């Protein structure tokens, strides 16, 4: 039987989830990242967790002053009470008052005295958690790469006998790849924080556990943000690890003709793509199913990328869907997504929170174009959306995706090839007939069962959503310019077919 080692919380729930519990105790870890990535904030969270547990903790800073650390803590609503700060604020503190400035910098004496003072402080306080910020200053003091490596190795050997969990902070300002590999090999675990500047919008931040000996952590990149209260980490979603048993019943809209198109409606655990040109009623159609779910007492969520929430509610209420009442009683949550202010990981985490904490049974994403536009420089967005849909499917959640098309009449196109990720595809088209602009609705795909192959007329007005009889007297409706051939031609064609 494999030996297990005790773990301690990092003070960050999302980070602990990535580590599957926390960091193995009494080990040396490297926390590296570019300037502004959040290393100091994460280090303080780590120490504050120790303070909350009644442990002695120590923050050794060679780079920031105590006032700067106080400012960081204050911005998050924290206090540094309980954290021992050891600040190297001047050369005199390291070398003593007898030190005299000369043209030759006495780096050997300075580095040696720095290490000696650190060991004396540790011996005096006997901390259980320690953050060393940062290695870049030690690298500058050492100047010689070989001497620097020896000192880091000596620190590791010293700490290993002290029963301390240590975070070594490095700002990755050096360019020597060998130096990085050396640090990685010395430490029990390596965590990398990155800050990415986009062409427009807020900076993106992500973390990666590059190695952690003896721990089956969640590999890959995980998005995170820095908010008041610390780092908010969004662990990468692995859909296959989430599954519950649920009934695969049909979810009806309450409109018989609409339900007939899908032979009862979409099944639980499936996703439906509603596609069509602007103003054709895609969102309204999804809201009909959502209002019916709310009437059944289910919790639902809308992620609104395009339309203002107030406009959406007013429009739905004017058609008798009564969304304002469901918002007021908490059954319906509408989240307005600000463009360029959200990462794919944060969006996925919001979905998970609604499903796992509110038990949301229906999700509407309006729209996929807005989702793509909100994160223009992100990679593999459709693949990440596919993972979200797989997760929702495993939990029996019904999902509606709105996908606008370019064009109004005639040929239409979309910039997103997303029909393959949905279980069902509902198409809405404009067509012209008898001097009027009319709408047609049809089902192109229903992966989970049979569907009606008829093309029906769709009307949306103050009376709500109405689906008419099949358009059997028209030919070429999906082209946008159909040909009307009347009942007489219909009878002749039926006789020829017979």
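^ Assign residues to that structure.
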């Amino acid at each position: 039987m494999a030996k297990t080692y005790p773990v301690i919380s990092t003070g960050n729930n999302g980070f602990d989830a990535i580590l599957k519990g926390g960091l193995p105790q009494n080990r040396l870890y490297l926390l590296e990242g570019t300037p502004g990535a959040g290393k100091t904030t994460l280090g303080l969270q780590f120490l504050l967790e120790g303070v909350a547990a009644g442990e002695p903790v120590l923050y050794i800073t060679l780079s920031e002053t105590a006032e700067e650390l106080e400012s960081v803590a204050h911005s998050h609503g924290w206090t540094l009470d309980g954290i021992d700060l050891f600040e190297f604020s001047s050369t005199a503190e390291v070398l003593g008052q007898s030190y005299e400035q000369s043209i030759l910098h006495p780096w050997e004496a300075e580095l040696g005295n720095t290490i000696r003072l650190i060991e004396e402080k540790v011996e005096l306080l006997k901390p259980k958690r320690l953050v060393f910020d940062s290695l870049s200053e030690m690298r500058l003091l050492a100047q010689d790469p070989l001497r620097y490596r020896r000192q880091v190795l000596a620190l590791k050997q010293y700490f290993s006998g002290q029963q301390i969990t240590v975070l070594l902070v490095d700002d990755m300002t050096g360019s020597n790849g060998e130096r990085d590999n050396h640090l990685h090999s010395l430490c029990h675990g390596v965590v990398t924080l990155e800050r990415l500047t986009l062409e427009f919008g807020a900076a993106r931040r992500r973390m990666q556990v590059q190695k952690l000996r003896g721990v089956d952590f969640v590999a890959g990149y995980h998005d995170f943000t820095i908010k008041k209260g610390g780092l908010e980490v969004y662990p990468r979603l692995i859909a296959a690890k989430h599954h519950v048993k649920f009934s695969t019943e049909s979810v009806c809209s309450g409109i018989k003709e609409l339900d007939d198109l899908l032979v009862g409606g979409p099944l639980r655990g499936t996703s439906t793509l509603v596609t069509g040109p602007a103003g054709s009623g895609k969102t309204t159609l999804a809201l009909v199913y959502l209002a019916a779910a709310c009437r059944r007492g289910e919790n639902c969520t809308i992620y609104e990328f395009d339309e203002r929430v107030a406009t959406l509610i007013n429009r739905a209420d004017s058609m008798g869907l009564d969304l304002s009442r469901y918002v007021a009683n908490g059954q319906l949550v509408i989240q307005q997504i600000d463009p360029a202010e959200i990462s794919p990981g944060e969006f996925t985490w919001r979905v998970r929170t609604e499903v796992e904490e509110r038990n949301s049974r229906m999700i509407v994403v309006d729209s996929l174009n807005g989702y793509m536009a909100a994160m223009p420089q992100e990679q593999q967005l459709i693949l990440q959306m596919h993972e979200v849909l797989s997760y929702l499917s495993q939990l029996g959640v019904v999902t509606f995706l709105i996908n606008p098309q370019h064009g109004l009449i005639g040929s239409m196109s979309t910039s997103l090839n997303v029909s393959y990720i949905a279980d069902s595809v509902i198409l809405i088209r404009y067509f012209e007939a008898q001097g009027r602009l009319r709408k047609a609705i049809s089902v192109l795909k229903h992966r989970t069962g049979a569907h009606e192959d008829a093309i029906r007329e769709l009307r949306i007005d103050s009376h709500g959503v109405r689906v008419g009889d099949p358009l059997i007297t028209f030919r070429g409706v999906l082209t946008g310019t159909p040909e009307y051939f009347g009942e007489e031609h219909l009878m002749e064609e039926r006789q020829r077919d017979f």
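The longest strand covers residues 436-446.
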